[in-house]
Amino acid sequence: MGSESHSQLGHRRSAMGLVLLMLLLPLSHIHVTKLEQSQSVQSSNGQPWDDRGQPWGQYGGGATRNGSMPTHNATSGNILSIDDPVINWVALDDSIGSDAYGSIIGNFSGSLSVSPGAIERCTPSALFAVILHESTSTSTTKLSLFAGDDAALSWQVELGDTRAARSTPVLVDVNLDGRTEIIVVYDTDSSLQVDVWSPELFCDESGWQVSGHTNELLWSWTNADYRIGVTSPHFQTRQSNHLSVTQPLLADLELDGQPELVLTVVDSTTDDPHILSIPLGANTPTENWDVTLDRGTHPSDPAWAQLDAQNSVVVATTIDENSGNMWIWRIDGSTGSNDWGRLAIAGTDTDSDAPRLRLPSPVIAQLDTDDAPEMILTVPTDANGRTLGLGARYIGMELTSTQEVFTFRARNGYADAPPLPVDLDHDGIHDRLCWVTWYSASSVTFDREGMVGCHDLTESPPTEEWTKVMNRGGSGNDNDEIAVSPPAWMDIDGEGDPEIIVAFGKRIFAYEGDTGFTNEVSDGWDEPLSMPHRVWSAPAFADLDNDGYLDILYGDTLVSQRMLDLAPLEDGNGISFNPVSPDPGQTLTVTGQFANIGTWENDDSIDCALYMDGQEISRVRIDELEPLSPSGEGGPETFSVDVTATLGTHMFELILDVNQNLTEAREDNNIAYANLTVVEPYAVVIQGPETVPRIEPGTSASVDVSVTATGSRTALWDIGYDTTNLPDGWTVEPNQGSSLQDVELTPLSPFIIPFTATLPNDALGDEDGYIEVIATLVSDPTIEATTLIAIEALRTRGLSLVGPTGLANSHGYGIPGYVAETYVLIENLGNAVETTTSIDWTSPSWGGSPVLFDGTNNVYSITLDPGERVELKILLDVPSSIALGSTTTTTLTTCIGSGEETLCRSLDANFTSTASHASPTHIRTVPSTTHQFEFHMLLPSSGTLSWDLNQANIALPNWQWNISSGGTLVNDVLTASGTSGTYHTVELEFYIPPNAAPQRLSFQTEEQNTPQNHGFDLSVHVLQIHRSNLVVINPQPSLEAIGFNVSTNHQILIQLENPGNGEDTYKFEARVVPTDEVSAEDVAFTYYNPQRTLGPLATTIMPLDIVLNETLPASNPFHIEFEWSSLINKSVSATTMLLVEAEQRHDWEVVVTGGTQQTVQPMESYILEFEVKNIGNYVDEVQLIPTLSVTTSDNDTADWQIHDTIESDSLDVNATSNLTVVQQIPYAWKDAEAKLTYSIVSAGYELGQFEIDLIVQEHSEWGVNLADSDLEIMPGGDYIQVQIEQKGNSPSTPFLTKYGQGWNISLPNGSLMEPGQTTIVDIYVESPKSAREGDINVLEIRISDATGNGMEVFQVPVRVIRSSGYDLQKSVDWFVSSEGGFPLAWVENTGNDMPQIELEVVDLPEGWSAVVDASMELTPGQIKGLPIKLVPPEDWDGVAYNLTVQLIHSELGAETIEFTVRSSNISFSSSPVLWSRVGTQQSVEVNNPLNNEITQESGAIFDSNLSFSVQSGVTYLNLSSGEDQIQFVLIGKETPLMIVSCSFINEAFNNLGQTELTGDFVACEVVGDPVVNTKLSYIVTTNRGDNIPLVKTTYSVLVNQSMNANLSVSNWDPQPGNILIMVQAYDEYGNLLSSISRSVVSRESGWNLGISSVSAKGEINVAISRTNYEVLVDGICKLTVTSRQSDFKEVVLIDAAGPDFKPNNRIDGIGLEDNEQLDVALACNSPFDIDDDLTDNTASVIFEAEEPPVLSSSNLIWAVSIATILIGMYVFIVQRKDGMTEQRSSEDKPTSVKQPQNQQAKPIEPVTDEIRQSDEDVPFEDESIELIEPPTLIEEIPLEDDLSPSGRLDSIRKEMNPEAEASEESSIEDRMSKFFN
């Protein structure tokens, strides 16, 4: 059919509109610049599962697949790197090794049981290699565990017949029982199988229990449709029976602490890839979710990433084996939601052979500084085969959007292994990406080569650091040269970047991280390490053999450090004894045993020695010692020596490499120790409780006694015990049933004898005792052992009675006929207040009753506090008849407590009859005191007595003795005189000096002349006084704080003193008195002999060094307290304070955030960031003062300007501040260098300098200008022209490539362009032929230079113009029954427009009628049968005839259609053309006037209504009735079907404008297509031309999914007014699915208009206040006053925001009666109908009418005067009327005359509403307001239209009150008459 030509009309007119439209409303279903946010997923409160909990628990080590390594170091640390590799062991003895593509190392300590004698030999580290093997093609597969240190087969099960088991097992504690489970995923011929094994490992001295573990299968999960391995499209791979197999993933998808299993599989029934999540637990699970990946044939391994604390995703790619196209899939971890749908990966190659072996998984990495991770994708294809330049592609992509971060291609080769991101500087951001590829080396052979390389990710685009070529080496087949094993990194040399380890073929290569050279790594890695078989497995890293070096497990082969490692035999077998328990004197053979447990033999002789108790007893030299199996064929070495056993414990040592001349992997295992105790054959040790049992009187307690044989023999012993040493009444007996005879004692096995000890109630608190336990050897009673078991009574109270000597006796004296006295000190030794319950005396021989005397009164009861002492006298009368020299004794017994708790103590008081004695007899005192005592005597017949007190030793230093009365003391001779035979008293006193030493003194001497019975006897007890004192002598304390510099040593001098009377030991201590700002740690003290002993009154100088912490704040005084405390009497101490403070220290730490060398771009406002920290000790400020110097080329004329000085705010100590400054970068050339030198200045002091180098980088930038571009194209393809601008700073050639999924385009090659140059390029756009008129597509063109720099994607919107066309299909025969019929003919709109098609039947025979739809409108692609019903006349004879139908196309014109009308018994009563979506039901009506049977070709019988399911394509079906047959057609269309129903959420708009709208405002119910996944997009606009910013615009809708897709906004705050919101929903093909709209009101907040006061006395005055009234510029407000009692109503317009606003509005009260209640209301039109305070919008007031005034004479005079003036004015105006009229008509510009302001308007006739205007007058809805204008004296001259607010107000006023305007137009005379009336 015809089509319309390409019209150029209107192209330029619409180009700019199209650009704007496409920027605002992109119709492409993939948005490159922004991706919808993930839906929120609820997670638990638990911590996420740690995917690194196992040493290497899954492929790649972790769920991110990024090859993170265990912590290791090249030179030091717990784990060292391998710098000299060697094969440690090979677990399997076959040519293939492990079958899995990954290596696994597990810690099975929780599943391991080891006998005590095999702990060291049975893998003490509990690390095992997990290996799948023996499963080439389809065979029996074994799952085995091999011990990490010696490759011993430790556990094994058979999985049965499987297909190639290439999926790496994963390790996890599935059921949380502390045991590690193994999850194995594999295919059988009939299903996908997931097995979970829970190994139970057992090892003893004989080895491992390998078999018998079939019952340890926890559960299995199967799926008959799925397979984890599919056939590879690559011929050689397919021919060698290798499948493309994916690797399972363990990850915590829901972030709940428990991982899930994720698999990427292929449905064998549909060939669709799937990704599914399986929960893990104790029982067989059901899938969490299963997502169909409906693009591609082969999936990659899945990878996992955690986006934030609540969300994680699983990512995978798929590839189409036929085209090489790839897609990336992002699945929500918790829900399985396909977040991105099918997202194609740009830049794929056309390749029908991919993947070769497997599709590498995405790798999760951190590529920028934001929190969200990124991913790295691998496009595995090589665009040009073995030719260099276009190898596999690697793409960095955001995980939160589809934005590319980088893209580059490897130099050559296909990729079957994922790349390796490396974080070089350990800042958490990956800086480098290393990769490995392979390619065919020849076009005629299958020889292949590998290539490894690294790219620098810090460059944009990434730049190649190095590449190297690898060969397989040695024997093998061509498949060995497929690079399947991914690279890994290891820090081998400790210098620069880490080294890259990669396996290829049958060799392991190591490359220096910086350069890629192999000879710069280490001597051991100079050559590749040959392996026993090919290496396809990914490596695993851990220290398996426990030698302190990292090991590498490749499948079944362990690569370790080449090292000697000597060690004694494990499990204590390094030293052995024969016999094991020798007797004293017996010959003992000591044997040393050791082996080489390393990976290499010794290169020098091994010297080993045995030592006994530190003395060498034997030495041996071994010249050659191979490693033990499996690393070598060596065995253990032994040597022995005989010694004689002696009693005691002996320590034996085996020391390997005595001279330490060998280098070993470990040297901490070179010594073995063994202790041997030689004892007598028969010996025992008897032990009681560790602490002495203290038993409360009257109670019992258990006392356990252990008897242990310490000899070397087991024997019978008798146990006895002796209790004779216990106090009376105490009993200790063995418990009933204890057997103490013939007890068999085994060496070192204690025999416990339980005794019960019972104390009587009267047991004293200070009583104790013991029992003796005896063990006797039955066979030889001479051998026995004895032990004393002490037992004490628990003291509960105590009492002490002592005399002058401190003992429980006292001696006193008395003169016959007078009272004798002696001294007693009573003390409460208990811990509670005690009161004597009895004071008893024994009868003295002198007779009489002794009594206690306290110096004032006799004492009969004593109350003592705990520890209290009381001094008393014991008085006893001396009968006159008692002879001198006679003695007597009485015993004082004092008791406390009562009953069973009574405690008594006694003291013997001895008295002697004498002729003289002192009173008191004893003085207990302290130094520096004066005491008086009396010396009583009977004078002899001479009347004189004298005593030489020198003989009594009173001449003590500084003691002073004096006589007060009754005698003399001359030269220390005491003389007393008086009447013979009389009783005489001498009063004496003595002074004890302060330094008197503590001691008990007794002063005794006899009388010089009559010595008998005239003695001088006095005792003094000088107590020690503990005192302390100290004073700071330097610096001198003051009220002002003494300043000290921080971080500087200062010495303080303190004088310390012992003011006491005895030697004392003191401790000196200094401490900080803490404050809020100062702590004890802020001052460091250095003491010099802080503990010192001083004699009485002695002093010493104590130096003390202090250092104030540098962080101590300055000018913040605090105290240092010094303490000098007695260690003897801890209650005595002295303290003093010193007030100090820290001096201010200016010190700043400046960190340049971006480093001292930073790269900048030209024309950039570059932000320099500094972190300054006040590391001084006081609030401070800092300045950074810059200077600038520039180094550049001569042609660079850029003008650099230095920025201003940077100043900080005042910062507290240790506070930091981030300072930023903008340095403007001019349009400088590449490599221009600006050196900024900063001086750090604080308080005027320059503290230092630092520099920053700004280096201008090459700036590549391109621009696209569409302003003059014609962007309209024809369907099927067309050219557009686009202008490209070079915006870089160096000449470059633009390189144009297609980006994204838009229509195909053909791009030209670029040419060299200078900076600033523009050029026009022609781009051919291959639009679909089916594109509709108005279809818009956004072309994404990526422009960069030839190296990829300056890469930017530009969007070019193109629009398809009209191209009309249609296709007519028909059957020539038109069958008509008597009831008529429709033709089998249809029209398909093949154009892209929606034309009108009219039909007309031409030359219809007479009698015939045709029912024709007047017009058809077809959408593009729509098919419709011709809607013509032809009805014959009743007399038609059935003869066929030709009929013409004319079709008229609105664009293409008319066409005639010829039919032959034929008769039939059946015909169609509706169009027999059924066109619809595939799978839907369609029906057709048949005319069957004879009711004949109607059959279909299949034999089915129908009535008149036939229903069919429409299939894809065109299907013709026949209907028969007798001989008649008619045909109809079914035409099926493949289009998605999605139902969308939306409605507005009413409450969402309640406060619109007053507060920002955040949240849902539209609710949509969506039902997905029943067959395919679809996408739904929303566009929300307003009548103001705005796009409402939606939080999410696009939704993925799964098959048959019913979902709520609510629309939300964030912080939407529109301007006030009415807004029409329009919501449209589109499918991914641009079909409009739903459209709704709603008008809402947006209000404003933050303003108020209110009534501040109202008065109504005679007239009504309303005061109005306004706040933030500027927002009311477009608002119309009115003030309304109404009466409740009458129909009074006044309305006044308020110019709320204009110049005519009146704060006070006056309204006449005409018509109001007194006491009417008025309501006042203030309101504005919408959207200003609600302000911030609604309470002040109304008021109420009572009207008070004014009484009419009395007319006075003066008032009358005034009235007459005013009337005269007005009449004169009236005459004047009348005379001037004609002249004024002429003047108005002749003037070009009218003038206005102001009206009088205070005239009152009086209505001529009743008016309902009277309005006073304060501003604009606007008609209100539903109100009829009539304004009465006051009369004017002078007619106003008409003005031009005034558009100001006041002008608009006048215009509105006129509209509201046309009568007022008419009154103005009346004559002046009329108006004057009205005024005066």
Question: How would you portray this structure in words?
Answer:
Helix 5 (1845-1856) packs across helix 6. This protein is mainly beta and 1877 residues long. A hairpin with a 7-residue loop joins strand 100 and strand 101 (1352-1360). Mean pLDDT is 84; it is low at 1-45, 1750-1754 and 1774-1877.
Structure described in brief:
The chain is mainly β.
Q: Keywords, please?
A:
disordered C terminus, 4% helix, mainly beta, 7 helices, 135 strands, disordered N terminus, 1877 residues, 5-stranded antiparallel sheet
**How would you sum up the major sheet?**
5 strands, antiparallel
Computed structural class: mainly beta
Number of helices: 7
Number of strands: 135
Please estimate the helix content. Answer: under 10%
Q: Which spans of ≥5 residues are poorly predicted at pLDDT below 50?
A: 1-45, 1750-1754, 1774-1877
Based on CA atoms alone, the radius of gyration comes out at 57 Å
Nearest-integer average pLDDT: 84
> Outline, from the CA principal axes?
extended
N- to C-terminal separation? Answer: 89 Å
Instruction: Please indicate the percent range of residues in DSSP E strands (runs of 2 or more).
Output: 35-45%
Helix-strand layout with pairing:
Blueprint: H1 11-24, E1 85-90, E2 104-107, E3 112-114, E4 127-133, E5 139-147, E6 153-162, E7 170-172, E8 181-187, E9 192-197, E10 201-204, E11 207-208, E12 217-223, E13 226-227, E14 229-231, H2 235-239, E15 243-245, E16 249-251, E17 260-267, E18 273-279, E19 289-292, E20 298-299, E21 303-306, E22 312-319, E23 326-332, E24 343-344, E25 363-365, E26 374-379, E27 393-398, E28 404-409, E29 420-422, E30 432-440, E31 448-456, E32 463-470, E33 488-490, E34 499-504, E35 507-511, E36 529-530, E37 540-542, E38 551-554, E39 557-561, E40 566-568, E41 575-578, E42 587-596, E43 606-612, E44 615-622, E45 637-644, E46 648-656, E47 671-678, E48 684-687, E49 694-695, E50 700-709, E51 715-722, E52 731-734, E53 743-745, E54 751-758, E55 768-777, E56 784-793, E57 799-802, E58 809-814, E59 819-828, E60 834-841, E61 851-853, E62 858-859, E63 863-864, E64 869-877, E65 887-896, E66 903-913, E67 916-919, E68 922-925, E69 929-938, E70 944-948, E71 960-965, E72 968-970, E73 973-977, E74 983-992, E75 999-1005, E76 1016-1022, E77 1029-1034, E78 1042-1044, ...
Parallel strand pairs: 3-10, 49-56, 58-66, 68-76, 78-85, 87-93, 95-101, 103-111, 113-119, 131-135
Antiparallel strand pairs: 1-39, 2-4, 4-5, 5-6, 7-8, 8-9, 9-12, 10-11, 13-17, 14-15, 16-17, 17-18, 18-19, 20-22, 21-22, 22-23, 23-24, 25-26, 26-27, 27-28, 29-30, 30-31, 31-32, 33-34, 34-35, 35-36, 37-38, 38-39, 40-42, 41-42, 42-45, 43-44, 43-46, 46-47, 48-50, 50-54, 51-53, 51-55, 52-54, 55-56, ...
Helix pairs in contact: 5-6
